[in-house]
Design brief:
Blueprint: E1 23-27, H1 31-42, E2 46-51, H2 57-60, E3 64-67, H3 73-83, E4 87-90, H4 97-102, H5 104-122, E5 127-132, H6 154-167, E6 172-177, E7 180-181, H7 192-201, E8 206-209, E9 213-214, E10 217-218, H8 219-231, E11 236-240, E12 246-247, H9 248-259, E13 266-269, E14 282-283, H10 304-316
Parallel strand pairs: 1-2, 1-4, 2-3, 4-5, 5-6, 6-11, 7-10, 8-13, 9-14
Antiparallel strand pairs: 9-12
Pfam families: RmlD_sub_bind
Organism: Actinoallomurus liliacearum
InterPro entries: NAD(P)-bd_dom_sf, RmlD-like-bd
Length: 332
């Protein structure tokens, strides 16, 4: 289906790249969108989350929110005009790969048509799209930026359509990420780390494919890269992945060992006939360009053992009631 895209290119930093007054519109308010918004705010900038539904209070972290359905071209124009951002980060769903495979038209409407609408609304504003390893066939151990794309499923096809639309503007960076993980107790579809920990804590078996490979990357690392890259107005294609290629089975055992929850509960299965059947066997990435980018110095992604250590305090703490949605921002 063609080449994966050109290398990441620099276009200079914002005049006030230290953060003062820079406003980023984050399209998507899940656990990754919330972490990106929180990182922007911690650096002295301002972030407005935009999504169809209000974010959970914990993930929103007090950030402003606007309602937005990216399938609506007029809504995209109106929200971008009202927010008046300096840049956009696009990280909205649906990202449930099995659901997308069963609902390919809806997936393409959200990602493909959504990208068309956002590109038209953004004009020449810098845009960072968080994309996926599912744009590749998964027949090789790992994929770099210059490798040929051939989506493995409906989700990959929809994200590739979004990539191409935004790259055609000349103002976008596509950041393809491998499997993102973190502690996400309020998510509509909690990530693999969260579901593993919950099952292990409850003494339930975790059936994990030993023939499905990932390069898992901690959510905070994705947030850090996204924030730096959009501030420096990079364009092109860049890959972000964790430093290890692991099967889901091996990773689940590392999670169990790191949290002292009993590796014997993790059982190896094949991905055929499971929710992972439509995923590429090798959902693994590496970067051919990241080491050359000065803004990423000191931001290298951690391995899964360090990631588990950082998440241990929240992952092992008693869970309270689910967070209620954050109130809608009154700043229109």
């Amino acid at each position: 289906m063609g080449r994966a895209g050109g290398p990441c290119r620099g276009r200079g930093a914002y005049p006030d790249a230290g953060g003062g007054g820079v406003l980023t519109m984050v399209v998507g308010s899940g656990y990754l969108g919330g972490r990106i918004g929180a990182r922007i705010r911690a650096l002295g900038g301002r972030a407005v989350l935009c999504s169809r539904r209000p974010p959970a209070a914990r993930s929103a972290a007090g950030l402003e929110w606007r309602e937005l359905d990216v399938r609506d071209a007029r809504a995209c124009r109106d929200v971008v005009r009202g927010v008046a951002p300096d840049s956009l980060v696009i990280v909205h769903g649906p990202s449930d790969i099995t659901w997308c495979e069963e609902h390919p038209r809806e997936a393409m409407a959200a990602h493909g048509t959504g990208a068309v609408n956002l590109a038209a609304a953004a004009g020449r504003l810098p845009v960072l799209l968080v994309s996926t390893d599912n744009v590749f066939a998964g027949t090789r151990d790992s994929y770099g930026e210059s490798d040929e794309v051939s989506p493995a499923n409906a989700y990959g096809r929809a994200k590739l359509a979004a990539e191409r639309t935004l790259l055609d503007t000349g103002a976008a960076l596509v950041l393809r990420v491998s499997l993102v993980y973190g502690w996400d107790p309020d998510g509509h579809r909690p990530n693999y780390f969260t579901t593993c920990v919950r099952s292990l804590r409850a003494g339930r078996a975790v059936e994990a494919p030993d023939d499905h490979w990932n390069t898992p990357v901690l959510v905070d690392d994705v947030a850090a890269w996204s924030t730096e890259l959009v501030r420096t107005r990079r364009t092109g294609v860049l890959h972000l992945a964790g430093p290890e290629r692991l099967s889901r089975y091996a990773w689940a055992r590392r999670i169990a060992a790191g949290l002292g929850l009993g590796e014997d509960l993790v059982r190896a299965v094949g991905k055929a006939g499971t929710a992972y059947a439509c995923r590429p066997s090798n959902a693994c990435l590496h970067s051919e360009h990241a080491a050359d980018l000065p803004e990423l110095a000191g931001l290298w992604p951690v391995d899964v053992d360090e990631g588990t250590r950082r998440l241990a305090a929240v992952a092992l703490a008693p869970e309270g009631p689910p967070a209620v949605p954050a109130p809608r921002s009154v700043e229109e």
